[in-house]
Amino acid sequence: MQLTNLRLRDFRNYEEASLDFPSKITCLVGLNGSGKTNLLDAIHYLSSTRSFLGVPDNQLVRYGATYFSIQGNFSMAHGHKEVACLVQPGIKKVFSHDGKEYEKLSEHVGKYPVVVIAPTDIDLIRDGSELRRKFFDSIISQIDTAYLNRLVTYSKVLKQRNSLLALFAERKFQDLQLLQSYDEQLVMTGVPIAARREQFIREFKSFFHTAYSFVAGGEEGAAVEYQSAVADADYAQVLERSLQRDLALQRTHAGIHRDDFEFKFEHGELKRLGSQGQQKSFLVALKLAQLELLNRYKGFYPILLLDDIMDKLDDVRMKHVLERVSSHQTGQLFITDAAVGRAATLFKQLQSECDIFNVNQGVIRK
Ligand SMILES: Nc1ncnc2c1ncn2[C@@H]1O[C@H](COP(=O)(O)OP(=O)(O)OP(=O)(O)O)[C@@H](O)[C@H]1O
Ligand SMILES: [Mg+2]
Questions:
Q1: pLDDT in tens, 231-278
Q2: Which domains does the chain have, with CATH numbers?
Q3: How far apart are CA 242 and CA 247, in angstroms?
Q4: For residue 48, how far is its CA from the centre of ligand 1 (angstroms)?
Q5: Could you write out the DSSP letters of every residue in 84-133?
Q6: Which of 103, 276, 328, 339 has an alpha carbon within 20 to 30 A of 97's alpha carbon?
Q7: pTM, 2 dp
Q8: Is any ligand 1 atom within 6 A of the Cβ of residue 338?
Q9: Is the Cβ atom of 38 under 6 angstroms away from ligand 1?
Q10: Residue bearing the CA closest to ligand 1, atom 12
């Protein structure tokens, strides 16, 4: 898979841009704040229908504009494909494939996969469980559309149940039967979600171990563990046990929306005990594992978006990683750098051809 052309309109600081990417490696060079990360985010958005920075749609529209659009051409093993989206926040968000609009956005997710390595990855370790769930959910969703649809249903029902709990408190009445009908729906979607997460992590682990030894030069007991209060329990019973608490605090306390994924290395919990370098190695290994797993499922490599990693070459064996991902067997690579010449020199050393684009206040020149 290769993204051969990208057109933007009113996306972030880009009023209009049309770019061709003939090479497998594209370096985006420019000063801080010029729009390098924004361009990677546009590629991510086109692929996954959302920003990798977690920025909501209304903040992606260029200041003063009312909508944005992104269009990309992909060269695939089975021919050329065009993906386009037009987003007018709060009003419409349409994605189309070769000119045909999708009925559901979930149909698009996973067709043109991307993997991002960015400074914000550190939040995966430092933040609460939500980001980790989102990370793994997004990978599973790319290989299993039924899973994604279940997640969407689950979060709708969860929202309704929480609203009902709030209503009970406000009106000082309780209709436990009505609440139970929501519980049944939560169980019906939650049980297969938990099972899928469990199964996925088992498979992911082997990719992760390989990636971690590649990045860190040894296994050091690094692992990802799925933690869930519902996975191996009677889901309905767990819900029932938290009923009084739910009623009192007007929120659903038990369920797959509280699951977590634990990151461990040889000395225990990575968040508390890992050094900065160990944490970075772990994150890069997570992403490489994601890359390899998606390759296994899709039969081709996802596009790799590397944001601001040049400064970190020495910390983790990043040069080693770059060597690997810029080799001919792997897919397309976009890399940003604020320092002119650094990326080009590195790829020259690696004997990989790369195209250099200069980004300056939302304008890109080759
Ligand atoms: N909705 C928007 N409309 C217009 N400009 C925006 C919008 N959102 C962000 N920007 C601008 O985009 C610029 C940031 O771009 P970006 O993060 O891509 O820079 P960068 O080249 O990656 O910089 P760095 O080297 O610091 O990472 C900022 O100047 C910001 O004001
Ligand atoms: Mg940036």
A1: 989 999 999 999 999 999 999 999 999 999 999 988 888 988 888 888
A2: 1-113+303-366 (3.40.50.300), 121-301 (1.20.1050.90)
A3: 9
A4: 20
A5: EEEEETTTEEEEEETTEE-SSGGGTTTSS-EEEE-GGGHHHHHS-HHHHH
A6: 328
A7: 0.93
A8: yes
A9: yes
A10: 13
